[in-house]
Amino acid sequence: MTDRKRLSSLADIAGSASRPGYEPGRHGRGIVHLGVGAFHRAHQADYTDAALAARGGDWRVVGVSLRGHDVADALNPQNGLYTLIERDAAGARARVIGSVERVIAASREPAALMQALVDPATRIVSMTVTEKAYGIDRARMTVALNHSAVAADLAKPAQPSGVLGVLTEALKRRRASGTAPFTVLCCDNLPDNGAFVRAGVIDFARRSDPALADWIAADVAFPSSMVDRITPAATQRTLDDAQQMTGCVDHAAIETEPFRQWVIEDRFPGGRPAWETGGALFVDDVRPYETMKLRMLNGSHSMLAYAGFLTGRRYVRDTVGPAGFRPLVMRHLSTAASTLRPLPGIELDAYAADILARFANPAIAHETRQISMDGTEKLPQRLLAPAVELLAKSADTEPIAFAVAAWMRYCLGRLDDGTAYALNDPRETDIAKAISGVRSPSDLARALHALPGLFPDRLRSDPKWLDAVSSRLGRMMTDGMEAAVASELAH
After folding, report:
1. 4 confidence band (pLDDT: 50, 70, 90)
2. Is residue 302 located within the same domain as residue 433?
């Protein structure tokens, strides 16, 4: 047990951690955030902290836990203060964040949640709740009626507990009272996330109140945003380091990498914090930036994950370290960048260098096995779309072909020594059926190319592409994955 004081005010801080550049209590709230987990506290709350220090304003955050109460129990006794630790090869640095006012545990305080949402001071409702929590059918862009929270909230719309129900009821009450709507800002890592949430909210509203749905469609802003920052789960080391660097016990401390990125569509009728002072980039269209991230960061992530996992490299950092295959990652980044058009505010070479530095960060234990999961959901945007574009302009597709071949080798479900593993892919059964009894690399490549709805026609029918994939897959299957990586490095 420790006799140190619990962090609850800036005056408590006695260590090396830096303090907010403002007095939190002098700033009112303006944001309600649904899903106040570690990522939000390392990302949006961090940017808001920087904005308050630079420009002030009543923009502090009321966080909401829609299900549990652990975060509320950790943060509320600390008056919303917590330690954010950044780790890299140079060590660890800590800052105390003051942008969170308090946290509502919605399961315990449903009335407090709705009160915060309808408060005229609330001008932005943001969220990080994961795609599954919304209950939106992406293919149809309508609510998923079999989603438990959606079904419950449609049955009792005045007592909502799910994301769509909560947003819709709050907007309904604001409309009825003549209060301007808040801006809905999705910060989940989803493509075109503003349009995604907008479609779900409007469809949810239309099922009980068509006039409300029309009002939402006309008057409520749903800007898209792109977020990026690796935030591992806090450990006892996190808490111990926070105590050492603040001189206080901090039950809400979190850790993260130094890199962070936030690209936001600039549509905030009710105003917004000066997030750009913390490095956020405001643009007219987020989609090209999402494409950049998918092809460069995520595409190279997938390549090194399959090659890394199949060669016994447990963590991403092992793939770009001294015993890794850094040149292959650099080659993939360069190829992916060649498919992109120039983007305002982004230097692609610098972005690639940032990605390599992030992958090499020894303080981040990101497992290749984890990244390898759900390949059929990731390949189309990360690898297959850029491959089609490269073929169309007769450019080099070999780096992408290597990545796709590595995924196909992963689909066999066994390491070179015969050790079996689960693919953890939503189409695992389809994959197993497609490759059952297939022996030759070329037949295996064709069988996986033939999976319905996965590979574009251009790739399935291009002999040069098929040969590039099949030849690499053959080397992986015959000589082993380590030899295939070595051959690619020498190519």
Report:
1. confident
2. yes
Outline where DSSP puts E strands in 279-327.
281-283
DSSP bridge pairs for 91: 88
Handedness of CA 393, 399, 405, 410 (dihedral sign): negative
* 439-456: average pLDDT: 96
Determine the Cα angle at 261 with ends 260 and 267, to 5°: 140
Residues 410 and 269 in one domain: no
Residue span of the structural domain in which 312 resides: 287-490
Global pTM exceeds 0.85: yes
pLDDT of residue 1: 43
How many folded domains does the chain comprise? 2
Fill in the amino acid letter for 258: P
Cβ burial, residue 272 (10 Å; 0-12/13-18/19+): buried
* 40, part of any domain: yes
CA dist 379 to 26, 383, 458, Å?
48, 5, 15
**Residue range 14-38: average pLDDT?**
97
Instruction: Give CA 456 to chain center in angstroms.
Output: 26
* Token duo for residue 56: 């002030």
CATH number at residue 275: 3.40.50.720
Same domain, yes or no: 320 and 279 = no
Give the three-state DSSP class for 86: strand
Q: Which long-range contacts (CB under 8 A, 24 or more apart) does 372-375 make?
A: 372/302, 372/305, 372/306, 372/309, 372/410, 372/424, 373/423, 373/424, 373/425, 374/424, 374/425, 374/426, 375/302, 375/306, 375/407, 375/410, 375/411, 375/423, 375/425
4 assigned to some structural domain: no
Measured in degrees and rounded to the nearest 5, phi and psi for residue 96 equal -95, 130
Task: Give the tens place of pLDDT for each residue, 331-359.
Answer: 999 999 999 999 999 999 999 999 999 99
